[in-house]
């Protein structure tokens, strides 16, 4: 089924079409229709009414810089994207019709100038697509998949929400579970996050919560990099990695809304699977990468699985996380804790390696003060070699 | 067996593990709480079944310079840093409050402490608390004292190629001690290695409540067994008595 996005951009049509094509060329089943923005009231009438038939909206950040012909007149939009997005969200909060994803598409420098400085608008958009990155086909394909996943996911959220007789206690359906007992392994504060709501919430609140606090952050869900690290596998050197995961860990894969745009696994279910099929090798966390891969090869018969080496010969290979800057496996005991604000208790800690610090990929101020003494000791150790 | 009660028991255990993780994170004691989070998730598998199990592996405690100073009389001395790692594997069956049965069917608590000098040499200290899985041996006829729950010095999780100087490491003695699940093992570590912090945490109602619940669940039946002096117990419903706990006792 083709997914259609309306794309508002006051930039030159040829240029805007080029950006749209970068996304659609990389993504079958995605169509993007560029339009020049109109005046605020006309625009709102068009995109929040029942007649809006697209599956989503893609907005350039600065819609107000150039005037264009629209509906027979020379028009220059009098608003920026956040204002439009806010109006759409407010209207859908009032009445739950025409709920759809809104994505921001803009240049990196413009985002830095405007969007990143205004934190109040950060909840309005489901994803941000950086125009500068669209030259890379893989990145464009990834964004394209996310746009499709967003459209499908919003429809699923609306369908599931509207089918519920109660206003609370059904959030687990959005995560791909039928029974509330199936989510007993999750932090109850996550599953019950919306249970204090007086009414059912608009779709973008559920969507935003899932994207921002589950899919985009490490916690109960992990991505392929962390999965590979926990299985002790050298991601790049193991041609059978995907096949092994498909054979052994399919039950651990995330099957909730937006699953096609964000490929994730439930961290706990990965461990649980290991305990069921590989318990004789020892708990996953307690054994080395070599032992983990040896067992995986025995279980699957696959040869193309290579254990990953640690960054440093002194480091342990009981990998559980990755260095956030170098994107390589790391045992937290060898890493430095990154400073972070954790909006929710289910967020995982993030670590960097000392090597990343040496290469100036991370600054002392980014490291949690709890680990500053360790940082100094690591520096001393290295300089005494 | 009341299935709703079993579910609540398991959920309660998971919530206590998570609550403890958060309290210790805020107190700046734990670097990475994911072992506790994993253990909490494991508690809630198979919610309807009465048996439960969790692994809390590789829990790393931060030892600040202040706490290091407390342990200044180490041998060898002049440690520049210290790291404590705790691993707990525990399992049992659902028990109700005031249940006198042994709360565990398996328990293994391992603690490894590394002390590093500025020269780079690392020294190791280890202890573990085990459950005697060989419950069926009549303690009367046992050849040596093997308390149901006991401490032993040293452990299997140390590097195999350590030098031992002139130390002599024996399996004995096996020192009887009340069992420790992950919650009580953490409290045990704090009480021995973090004096000021341990006292402050005990004043924290949230922390104290979690510890107290674990003690009721685990130490109460143990103390009841220790108080059972009138018989030798080997019955199928896991009743146990003083000789299981203190094999040296002559009831």
Quick tags:
heterodimer; A: 385 residues; alpha/beta; five-stranded parallel β-sheet; two-stranded antiparallel sheet; 13 strands; 11% strand; globular; B: 251 residues; alpha+beta; six-stranded antiparallel β-sheet; 7 helices; 22% strand
Walk me through the structure.
The complex is a heterodimer of chains A (385) and B (251). With 385 residues, chain A is of the alpha/beta class. Chain A contains 13 helices and 13 strands. Chain A has helices at residues 13-25, 40-48, 81-94, 108-113, 137-163, 188-191, 203-215, 224-230, 241-248, 267-277, 289-300, 354-358, 372-383; strands at residues 3-8, 30-35, 56-60, 68-70, 73-75, 102-106, 127-130, 221-222, 265-266, 321-322, 329-330, 336-337, 351-352. A five-stranded parallel β-sheet of chain A has the order 2-1-3-6-7. A two-stranded antiparallel sheet of chain A has the order 4-5. In chain A, a hairpin with a 6-residue loop joins strand 10 and strand 11 (329-330). In chain A, helix 1 crosses helix 5 (137-163), helix 2 crosses helix 3 (81-94) and helix 5 packs across helix 7 (203-215). Chain A starts with a strand and ends with a helix. The relative contact order of chain A is 0.08. With 251 residues, chain B is of the alpha+beta class. Chain B is 34% helix and 22% strand. Chain B contains seven helices and six strands; from the N terminus they run H-H-E-H-E-E-E-E-E-H-H-H-H. Chain B has helices at residues 3-26, 34-43, 65-70, 182-193, 195-202, 205-226, 242-245, and strands at residues 51-62, 79-93, 106-117, 122-131, 149-153, 175-176. Chain B has a six-stranded antiparallel β-sheet. In chain B, strand 3 and strand 4 form a beta hairpin. The longest helix of chain B is centred in the N-terminal third of the chain and has 24 residues, at 3-26. The two termini of chain B are 34 Å apart.
